[in-house]
Design a protein that fits this description.
One of its GO terms (molecular function) is carbohydrate derivative binding. The protein is of the alpha/beta class and about 350 residues long. The protein contains 14 helices and ten strands.
């Protein structure tokens, strides 16, 4: 599909791909044995720390993986700056380091170069992609196929959530888990999409004319806040900024007022509990708060989009679903076509 190719009804691809996610999760869960084999090889190498390389929505999946690795594996973990390799030619010693490259297409030149360079420098490299025969998969020593199927909308939806689940299954298997906590996700995803529809429609009506939004979350949900801001910016052209709840209170909250919409990701667990104080401050400044997540009913907000509860480390897989629907609805309400955001293509090639 080219930028000028007609797509029929605006948003039809994005809408269909959002609805497809329960089936995508079921397919991915059926491949737990294959992912566990990759995890076994990672565990045998006993990496001393981990690095994650990604761009765009995949960068937010990598942020989620950073929490998984640091909390569940107790390994130090960092996000790679690809330009240190591609522009500055840095050559760090990566012996006994795990590098996980996350890319839906597996075709970004900078991620390919980072992965090739890391492997030469001694890293164990793992590609997590939606394209099994991509250059990135060939460059990495190991690979995980997220099996989301072809994604036609420019804005990533099913490939993003599938990346999250694949990364969880990989990290859980490295620590010796079986992925049991994720077994019910397909049904929970259906319940999330069905149960949140009315509240999302109300949020679309509420924020249709808003000029700027802040998205925020703590812990695992920081990744969802970052992805929410990207989706709102690329589909609805909103001035949306993401902050962790902690960072929001360290200065940016001064810019929050009655004209600001705040999308707060609040799921049950330590991250959601830490958001209560943040939202007390934000509400005190007059902001209009929409809380999304399994703990939405427990925080101060003008509007709540509730999501079924699950293990805290899996909450981002579910809580992003109504966020995607909100981005879709706002884009359509504001007269846009989220399948064809202006100036964007499905694969962005950077170096």
């Amino acid at each position: 599909m080219t930028q000028n190719e007609p797509t029929g009804e605006p948003g039809r691809h994005m809408s269909a791909e959002i609805a497809e996610q329960p089936e995508v999760f079921a397919r991915l869960l059926d491949r737990r044995t294959e992912i566990a084999e990759v995890a076994r090889q990672v565990a045998e190498r006993r990496p001393r720390f981990a690095l994650l390389a990604a761009r765009g929505s995949s960068d937010h999946a990598a942020l989620y993986a950073k929490y998984l690795i640091e909390v569940l594996l107790q390994l130090p973990c960092g996000l790679v700056s690809p330009s240190t390799t591609t522009l500055y030619g840095a050559e760090p010693d990566l012996t006994d380091v795990l590098l996980v490259s996350v890319s839906q297409s597996g075709g970004s030149p900078d991620l390919l170069e980072v992965t090739e360079a890391a492997r030469r420098r001694g890293a164990l490299t793992v590609a997590v992609t939606n394209t099994a025969d991509s250059p990135l998969n060939r460059a990495a020593e190991l690979d995980v196929d997220i099996t989301a199927g072809k994604e036609l909308a420019v804005a990533a939806t099913k490939t993003y959530s599938a990346s999250l689940l694949a990364l969880y299954l990989l990290v859980d298997a490295v620590r010796g888990g079986t992925g049991e906590a994720a077994a019910g996700l397909p049904e929970l995803a259906r319940a999330t999409l069905d149960g949140s529809a009315e509240a999302v429609e109300e949020a679309v009506r509420r924020y249709r004319f808003v000029a700027r939004m802040v998205t925020t979350g703590r812990g695992y949900s920081s990744a969802t806040a970052a992805e929410a801001a990207l989706k709102l910016a690329e589909t609805s052209y909103l001035a949306a900024r993401a902050y962790s709840g902690a960072d929001l209170l360290h200065g940016p909250v001064a810019a929050v007022d009655e004209q600001t919409g705040v999308l707060a990701i609040c799921s049950e667990g330590r991250g959601g509990a830490a958001m209560r104080e943040v939202l007390d401050v934000v509400r005190g400044r007059g902001a209009d708060v929409c809380a999304v997540g399994s703990a939405a009913a427990q925080v101060p907000a003008a509007l709540r989009v509730e999501v079924p509860a699950c293990a805290e480390e899996l909450a981002p897989v579910l809580e992003v679903l109504p966020v995607q629907r909100l981005a879709l609805g706002l884009a359509l309400a504001r007269g846009g076509d989220p399948d064809r955001p202006r100036g964007l293509a499905k694969v962005t090639r950077t170096r």
